[in-house]
Design goal:
Chain lengths: 336, 336
């Protein structure tokens, strides 16, 4: 199976990603009962772990720790309707050195891209509490790299936590914003602007062009008060405008990405960044695991039922009840 | 202090909310060292718990479990720039029965509202991993009710998890959307539309009016495939359009809210909803607590440092390392 992925078999790639993402005990149960192949696979313990091990080995041979010699991971985020899909499609334009001239023709839309033999589009299940990003995104990215894709775009909707998470799986995080004024920019959280390596104001065409330029200078002055670009010495986050419609400004974005890539590789920082990302995924996953254990713990769910009654009848607060649950849970550690 | 809140002292209200929201050990430490009053308060163990207990007692006397006899909690969400503040200000218009004729004159903007003696605006710290909503939002709402506010608007930016959370603290959850087409609507997550008791397409004026009407009918047909309105028997989620500028459609929204309120109270469902919300806050807080314990556990952080090195050097995945951390953490339960 791992070999199939290495051989660029995207049917197997899809199946493995589905398995990696499935989190439901019932899937595993049902899988072993009815023998449905995709799911029964789950019944084999640690199988997904093994595939990932092989993937990691392959990528190490391909110099996984040196991003310039593996793939480019671009994270793209922004509120709904800002034009992420359009801008992302332009970003893998074949005229650019970055895409290694392999992916796209001009005027391609996301739907056309999906049908292209050299592209693979995967809407990812967001699952639990990770705010728009799957808890397995790092593993999905690893699998796509193993399958030999050069450019990996990780796109999330929404202005919230997911952007910060995207910056934890991407080599470069691009925040796309609509041409809005200062008041509305304040609604965009500090942490997201700080995490952005590049901010792009889209829709800078027609009536909105002036507004976009104004938003650009407001964003720029806001950036001066933030750390910006995750605080690289070799990179200062900038704000650019573009129009996905007229293509104006797109070349500037492309060359900004290329410069970032070059400088980040030379400084060794992109390699370091990937190392740090692996550490933060370790933490993220351990938190998800512990929460899942709490939810699944029988003693805890039993006590929770009692507490729900108490919450209705007595003057106890949810905060107090929460502490009770944690106490019950931690005691189960004794038996391990 | 609790008495001050009951007496509508908003200075004390602000201080207590700040305390409730503060999560930092260092604040507590520093507080007891330098004797800064707001923070030193924190050093007294369980003080915040006690204030909440008193608040809960007061609200019970005021028939807390019967929403119609306490306050109205309206949750409002939507992407940045959709006009949440404007629409929310209109929603507490004095001409409406709901606001009990006490809060606002016409054409009030959020800034004017902040200065109004009968209004209290509190930007809440979002803190950890709750995606735009504070983990103490339920307690802040309780305190505001204790202080006697009739209408409580809980507003979050972003299309993500925070909306679903807002629906867990509000009696009615209103999702505000811009007038965008079907493609872009797909970027809005199912769960959010399902959680909405009412969807409002704002900016239905001028050039955008036609687009808004189109978005309305697309949203309506999307809703047919979803459960909608948290599956009440007495309520079917609807999609309305409005213009915060021309005020067109605002009356329909107001009467939709009033109908919801009336039917929800009569059916007893709003009371049940608050009970369920308390249970889900218990779970939410217990998860936050357990994650914080994991992060703060010395044995875990020590092992994490070793694992970070292993992740850089070996072929181990972050997923494997996460399991190691959880194992170390659960063993600490033995000593409790």
């Amino acid at each position: 199976m791992a070999q199939d992925i290495i051989d660029h078999n995207r049917f197997v790639l899809s199946r493995v990603i589905t398995m990696i993402e499935s989190n439901k005990e019932e899937h595993r149960q049902k899988g072993s009962e009815v023998g449905y192949p995709d799911i029964a696979f789950w019944a084999i313990p640690d199988m997904r772990m093994k595939i990932l091990d092989v993937a990691l080995k392959v990528m190490k041979q391909r110099n996984y720790r040196n991003p310039a010699r593996s793939s480019i991971r671009l994270g793209i985020s922004g509120p709904p309707g800002v034009g992420k899909s359009t801008v992302a499609v332009i970003a893998v334009d074949p005229s650019s050195q970055i895409s290694r001239g392999s992916i796209l023709g001009d005027k391609t839309r996301m739907n056309d891209l999906a049908a292209h033999p050299n592209a693979y589009i995967r809407p990812c299940a967001t699952g639990g509490s990770l705010g728009g990003l799957s808890q397995h995104t790092d593993e999905v990215v690893l699998l796509c790299e193993t399958a030999g894709f050069d450019v990996i775009l990780i796109e999330t909707v929404g202005v919230g936590q997911s952007e910060v998470l995207v910056s934890e799986v991407a080599d470069m995080f691009i925040l796309l914003l609509p041409p809005v004024g200062g008041d509305e920019l304040q609604g965009i959280k500090r942490g997201i602007m700080e995490a952005a390596d590049l901010i792009v104001i889209n829709k800078a065409d027609g009536d909105l062009k002036l507004l976009a330029k104004k938003a650009q200078s407001e964003c720029r002055s806001a950036l001066q008060f933030l750390r910006g670009g995750a605080g690289h010495k070799w990179w200062k986050s900038d704000v650019l405008t573009c129009s996905a419609q007229t293509k104006e400004g797109v070349n500037d974005i492309m060359s900004s990405i290329e410069t970032y890539w070059k400088l980040g590789d030379e400084s060794g920082d992109l390699r370091l960044r990937r190392g740090k990302q692996r550490a933060s995924w370790m933490w993220r996953k351990s938190k998800e695991d512990i929460v899942k254990m709490l939810e699944d713990c029988e003693l805890v769910t039993k006590r929770a039922e009692e507490l729900e009654v108490e919450l209705r009848q007595s003057e106890k607060t949810p905060r107090w009840a929460a502490k009770e649950l944690v106490k019950v849970f931690m005691k189960t550690g004794k038996d391990l």
